Structures are given as C-alpha cells and as structure tokens.
Amino acid sequence: MTRDLLRRLVATVPVVLGAATFVFFMLHLVPGDPVDLMFMHSPLTVEDKERVRHQLGLDQPLVVQYVQFLGRAATGDLGHSIRSQRPVIEEITNRLPRTLELAVAGVLVGLLLGLTFGVLAAVKQGTWLDTLTIVSATLGVSMPSFWLGLMLIFLFALNLGWLPASGADTWGSLVLPAFALGLAVSAIIARMTRSSLLEVLRLEYITAARAKGLSEPIIVGQHALKNALIPVVTIVGLQFGNLLGGAFVIETVFAWPGVGQLAVQALMSRDYPLVQGIVLMVSVIFVVINLGIDMLYRVLDPRISYQ
Amino acid sequence: MADTTDAGHDSLEAGQGRPLTRRQMLRQAALGLTLLVGGTSLLVGCQQAPTSTAPQKPAESSKPAGASKLGEAAKPAAAASTQAPAAAKPAAPGKVGGTLIVGRKEDASSLDPQNGGGLLNAFPIISLYESLISLDQQGQIVPSLTESYSWSGDNKVLTLKLRSGIKFHDGTPVDAQAVKWSLDRTRDPERGKTSFADWKIVSEVQAQGTDTVSLTFQQPSASFLVVSLAGFGGSIVSKAGVEKFGAEFQKQAVGTGPFTLKEWVPGDHITLAKNPNYSTLRKLFKNPGAPLLDEVSLRVIPEDQTRMAALETGQIHVDHRPTPRDLKRLAGDPRFVIISANRYAAVRFLNFEITKPPFDDIKVRQAFSHAVDPTPIVDKVWEGSVVRNFNMVPPGHPGHSPEMEKVGYSFDPTKAARLLDEAGWTAGSGGTRTKDGKPLEILFWTYPEMEGDAQIILNQVERVGFKVKIESLEYGTFRSRLKDAVPNVITMSFNRADSSVLWSMYTWAQQAPISRWKDDNAKKFMALVEQGDTITDPAKRAPIYLQAQKLMVEQAVVVPMYSDGYSIVARKEVKDLLLDTSGLAQLVLFNDASLG
Fold first, then answer.
1. Is A123 helix (H, G, I), strand (E, B) or coil?
2. What is the pLDDT of residues A137-184, one digit of tens each?
3. What's B515's DSSP letter?
4. What single-letter DSSP state applies at residue B144?
C-alpha cells in the first residue's frame, strides 16, 4: 500500500509540471500587457512602461522567465502578484479555505441529492419517479451554473427573502452558492448511482439475498449500495476537481471571496504570477484528490490492486 | 438585513443538525425530489422571461420616464453651471453611529496611494487619506491639508501653507518635513507607480519651516493641481507608518482621512472606522468634524445583478456601480435615492485608422462620421445615463463648447452617401459600395462594455453602403493588439478630470490609431495641447483646447460620442452621501453620511 502510494505520488509530478508549463506559455501567448492595464489611465511614456516591465522582470526572454518560475516554485516561492505586489502564496492561502469550503459544501449537496435520487430511481425503475429523476438530472446537467446562481438569488434572496444574495458572513450565505454548484453534480451522481445500482441489483448474490427473504431496504442499503458506489466515488472525485473550476463562476456571481474570484480578477489584469500560482495550486489539488480516490478504491473493494 | 441572514442561518442548521434514519432519509428524499421538480419547473419558467432577474413591479414600470434625477445629471449645461450638488441634503443633521455597507464591483489591490494599483484603490484611499488641496463640487480648487496656496509670478513655484495641528492616524504631526517626504515618495519613479508620470514635471519639493512646502516645476502645468496634487495619488502618507510597516504598509494605510482602516479581508470587504480626531476646512461638507457613521464597510460583489439584489433586499445600503438599466428602473422608487455627480471626466469616441484604406481618405472618414448618430446609443444602450458630447473634452472643463456641435458631423446619411460617391465608392448590389472591384468593408473593433454601441453603429453605417464586421475583444486583448493596426475603426474611452485629456489621449495611446495621426495638423494639435497645459487661467485655456479639438474633429480622426455620467443608488435611509468630483472614478465621500 505504501509503495503504491509512493509510486503514484511520483507519477503526479509530471502531471503538475505539465499543467504549470502549459499555463505559463498559454498565459503569455494570450494578448494583453499587465503594465499597460496597470497604467490604463496614467499617461506613461514607452520608456516609463519599459522601466516598470524591467522592475517586474517581464522584459526577460520567456524561457528565462519560465525557468525562474519553475526554480522559485520548486522552493515554494510563487513570486509576487503584479497587481497587489503581495506574495502569491499569501494571496492564495488567504482565499483557499473559502473555496474549499464552497467546493466541499457543493459536493455534499451533490451527494445528498444525487445518492438519494439515484437510489430512488433504481429501486423504482420504470415508474414515474424514475422518469422524473432522469429528466431532472438531464436538466440539472444542462443548466449553466451562473444562470442557476442568478435564478437562486432571484427566488430565495430577492423574492422570498430567505437567504442573503451574496457574501460569506454566515452559514446562510453558503447555502445558495453550494446549491448552485452542487445541483449539476447531484444530477451526474444520480445518473451514475442509478445505473450502477441497477447493474448490481441484477447480480446473483442479490437474487440469493432475496431468496433468503431479506427485506428490500436491507438488500439495497447493506448489500447492493456498497458495490454500486465504486464508480460513484470516481465520479465524485472528478467532480470535486470540476467544482473547483465551477467555483470560478459561482464565486463571482455570489461574491464569495475565494480563489475563483481572485483568478478572474488576475486574468483580467494579466497578473501572470497570480494566475500561474492559482492554476498550479488547483492542479495539485486535482491530482491529490484523484490519488486519494484511487486509494479509496482499495478500501471499498479490497480485491482491487495496483500491482 | 439581520432578518435575512438569520433566516438563512436557521434553514441550514435545520437541515444539518439531525442524524437521519434510512426511512427518514427516504421520506425526506421524496420531499426533496418534489421540491427539486418544483424548483426546476420554476427555473424553466423563469428562463422564458429573460428581461431581468429583478422583480418587475408594475408601479415602477408605469412611472413616466421617472428618471428625473438621471435626466438632470445628463444635461451638460446644467451640470456645468448649476453648482447644485446632486446629493440629497436634508436640513437636519444625520443620526450618529451605525455601519454603512457599500457594494462595490471590485476590490482594491493596495491601500498605499503611491504604490501601484489603479482607480479601484482610490475608493477606500480617499476616505483614509487626504491630499494637500482638493476640489469642490464645481471642480474649483480648495484647500484641504493646506490653509492656502499661491503661485510665483512665472507660475513655476507653488507654495502651500499647511494647516496647523493636523496629525496622522498614528499620532505623528503633518508638518512640512512629513509632507515633503510623502511628496518625494510620490514622485520617486522607483517607488511611486501610480502617478510618477504626472509628477515628472516637479523638479524639487522644499520644506520651509514647519508649515510651508513649495514645489518647483520645470514648466507651468494647469492640469497638475487638478489631476495630480488633488488626486488620490497626491495623498499624504505617514512616514512613521511607512517605516513601521514596510512592505505591509499597503495593507495598513496610515493617513489623515476621516476614516482609519479597521480590517481588510481581500476579495470580501474593507472596513473603515471613523477617525474621532478628524477635522476639515473643506466647505463641501456640512460636518467639519469626525464622521457621523461609526464604520463603513466596502463589500465586493462583482456581479451586477447580485449587487442589485443585495441592495433591494437590504443586505447593502449602496450600490456603487448600478447598471444604466437598473438606474432607470429604480428612478422614482421611494425605497431608493439616486445620487448623480455633476461633473464628467470621461470621453468616448470612435477612432479611425487613418494610415490604411479606406479611412486614409478623409472623405470616407467624413462619410462614416455623418452616417453615425450617437443619440440612440445614449438613449437605448445607456438608458440616458450618459450625455451626448460633441466635444473631445468632458463637459464642464475648459474648452468644452457648444460650438463643437457645428464643427462636428451631424447625422446626415444623404451627405454621407454623397461623400462616398465623391470618393469613388459606388453603390453596388446587396447595398455594399465598391471601388475598383473592392467592397467597402470595415473591421470594427470594440470591447464587451461597448458592444451595444457597435451594433447600433453597424446598423447605421451599413445603410449608406459600408459593410461592417464587428469583433469584440476582451479589454486587455483589445488594448494589446491595437498596435498592429488591424482594425479600421475602434471604440475608445479616456478618463481625465481635465481638458488635458486631449494631451493624454494622444501621447498615452502609443498603440491606438489616434497616435498614428502625424501630419501637419497633428503637429499643430500637439503644440496647442502642450500650450494649454502651461496656462493656469481656465478662461485663457478654453480657446486653446477648443482650437485643438476642432483640428481633431475637422480632420475626422475621431467621432466624439458621449461622456459618462456618474450615478450610484442608495437605500432611502442613507443620507448625505457626496460624490467626489475628481471625476476619475465613482468615488463616494462619507464625511456627512448617516443612516437616517
């Protein structure tokens, strides 16, 4: 197990390095100059701007900047934000807990709704409940999260006045963004749970359990669900990564002070070190979660081995 | 507001606190499904009414043009001459205490006025710091940290006498040495990243005694006082504060302003607490002492519709950046008050690429100018929140003149067609003109904020035979790619609270098409705007800037369109908010403000 873990940990390095390299060069290929945007309303001459670029190290060849970036990143230094001039690490760590809080809440919403409806749809296969779940899940996957977010604000903040429209002051502030983020996930989980559970319910050991006279809730809850959950766990892992991406939009809609909102601002102002730092951080989280999910398989099904 | 958040709190706890049995879980799941289905239907229903996410109230929509306040703000003549501050000013003094919550679109990046960032930083900075001089509601220069100021005979030395007894938030005195140190820091190109370009004309700052500071200029500059010394970049910072906090100073803000910094949670809020020792000589305020409010919380809510929902539900008191559509919708609504600035700093215009066909021919530029009518843009796209401007100088500044309406190109499609005929572009099949077998195709670049403008212009100019392709680029990309001279015409916007906007738009815009106007007329134009800045008497500056504008418009290098008005929306319980008149951004002054 430990050797498995170590081997897989080493295998994550090229993934993270690849993501960092890709983002570095993509970002510099996108037109836009941070110095130009920084001095949008200041009458700076070309020489003034060149001097600021020199101060920021932006006048160096791209490859040199890249090597410097990797060298610093290897020692945990992601540089300073061009816009705020604060260390990138500090900017990210200030905001990361908020984003993780939102993503975890989104996954919980997704799991709660997805598992519930997935199980119901499988158990009541072919009934109106099943059809309704499938239709709702399709709608849930299709709805753009920003639109859903605005609709939730419209309904629950503006019309009903039950929840705040924005901010991160109270637990109440978390409800709407978590639902906006989690509904799409719940739709995916519901579909996966349904199909996986239906497959398991057709297996012989379930027939044997029924022949022994076990009640249906015990068969589903204790015998079928555990085996049916393995593909669902994969989906949850992958979706958690997607949720971090979805948070970029949802955080802007709900004024949630997380990394996503920071990334949007950083992109708009071409704050290269900050964008690079955020992408690096998100890729590390994504890789770590996937690693964790792989390890979790073995707990759920000891027959699985990576040898 | 408290009710709203409490309700949310309770509802979440009710769902999280109880462990569920499987039977309960199934029951609740069934209930949840019902709710989800109901919710989904509702959402689908909502999608069919895409007009607004805000509730439509019949009473509001039936109000006659309701936008009286907006209408007032949209009249340049009134704005320039009435001198009536647009903020509501009840006779009774406001209530003391309370926290005012303002919704902002974006957060600041630094609270050090001399160390990077942009106008987003100015909003908190003008409450935390003060400059040596300031502007009143009519844009006239008035003392702030100074008692008085005077120019030498040759307008090259500015002498400022400081107020006595003023202290920074950290208790250190605001004396001549402290001011000299702060001004030197501002104009240091290695450190001052916000404004040093404007400060390059200052050759020396001297402290004379304890209460007098003098600035020596390489050449006289009329715009320096308004843009640089009174601007937020000219804020006086505490030397002791800078030395104490070092690089952290940008998060600590030690100035002399009416508020001190209590807390800054990046991306979420900045909380300002009242400075109990504050006093001011600025006649702008009816309250010469410490602010009435205990605190002001500046909340970041980037999404326009979310911010408006927060205002309508009482989660915030002020929406600092309402959309034109919301301004129109809320005008006349008794729950809110719209506060509009009475001065302008922005000019928006079209700019031709005159170095390549077809706009290298002045007749084609003139034809395009005659084919464009900005009035529907002002009325429909911006809902009357901007003002039609025939000038390249913002209303209320020297050189802005009604005469420019006659100089410019009135909306006249017939004349446009005739000019195109004269230029050899003949009407062909499909409505697009051709010359030597080539169609009159135009690539029009814009950015998201001005897409609506571009669509209307496309519709207008295609009627006279242009074939227009619009490309809307993200603003950073737009700016960066202009230097390649790809588009034939672009939308542009410039902000500067002075007529010297003409100078900055030409010299600053090294990448924009305007910078490639280099004939004799361009040289005359540049000579005029440089001359204009050396004259400190506004009356004498005006004809010079008028003449410069005429050259630019007569040569059809640009098509002046409109100037932005500045309006914010507050809940009715908010009293005596004032808009700052430096005009570069929508800045709010909280000295007199109160909650009821």
1. helix
2. 888 778 888 888 999 999 998 888 888 888 877 888 899 999 998 888
3. G
4. S
Q: Across the interface, do B266 and A265 touch by the CB < 8 Å criterion?
A: no
DSSP B59-75: HHHTSSS-THHHHHHT-
Residue A53's nearest CA partner among A248, A286, A272 is: A272
Residue written as token pair 């991160």: A168
CB–CB of B96/B350 below 8 Å?
A: no
Contacts of residue A45 in chain B, CB cutoff 8 Å? 197, 507, 510
Per residue in B45-90, pLDDT tens? 333 332 333 333 323 333 322 222 322 333 333 332 222 333 444 4
Q: State how beta strands B99-104 and B295-300 pair.
A: parallel
- What per-residue confidence (pLDDT) applies to B6? 29
| Cα–Cα dist A228/A197, whole Å | 5
> What's the pTM value of the predicted model, to 2 decimals?
0.78
**Residue B243: is it exposed, middle or buried by C-beta count within 10 angstroms (0-12/13-18/19+)?**
exposed
What ipTM was reported for this prediction? 0.76
- How far is Cα B557 from Cα B521, in angstroms, rounded to an integer? 11
Question: pLDDT above 90 covers what percent of chain A?
Answer: 6
- Among B1, B28, B31, B33, most A C-beta atoms within 10 A, so best to mutate, is B33
Buried/exposed code over B425-436 (b: 16+ C-beta within 10 A; e: otherwise): beeeeeebbbbe
Question: Is B7 within 8 Å of chain A by CB?
Answer: yes
DSSP state of A294: H
pLDDT at B92: 54
User: Please, which residues have CB within 8 angstroms of residue B122's CB and are 6 or more apart in sequence?
Assistant: B113, B232, B584, B585, B587
Q: Is the Cβ–Cβ distance between B291 and B538 less than 8 Å?
A: no
Q: What is the pLDDT of residue A61?
A: 86
The C-alpha atoms of residue B438 and residue B55 are separated, in whole angstroms, by 51
Q: Would you state the pLDDT for residue B93? A: 66
Query: How buried is residue B51: exposed, middle or buried, by Cβ count under 10 Å (0-12/13-18/19+)?
Result: exposed
Cα B442 from Cα B489, distance rounded (Å): 7
B31–A contact, CB cutoff 8 A: no
Nearest to A101 by CA among A174, A200, A18: A174
* pLDDT score, position B508: 62
Question: Which of A141, A100, A150 minimizes the C-alpha distance to A258?
Answer: A100
Tokens of A300: 């759920």
Q: Nearest CB to A51: which of B33, B189, B251? A: B189
A253 or B283, which is more confident:
A253
Q: What is the pLDDT of residue A279?
A: 87
**Window from A202-216, B94-108, B358-372, B486-500 with minimum mean pLDDT:** A202-216
Chain centroid to CA B512: 21
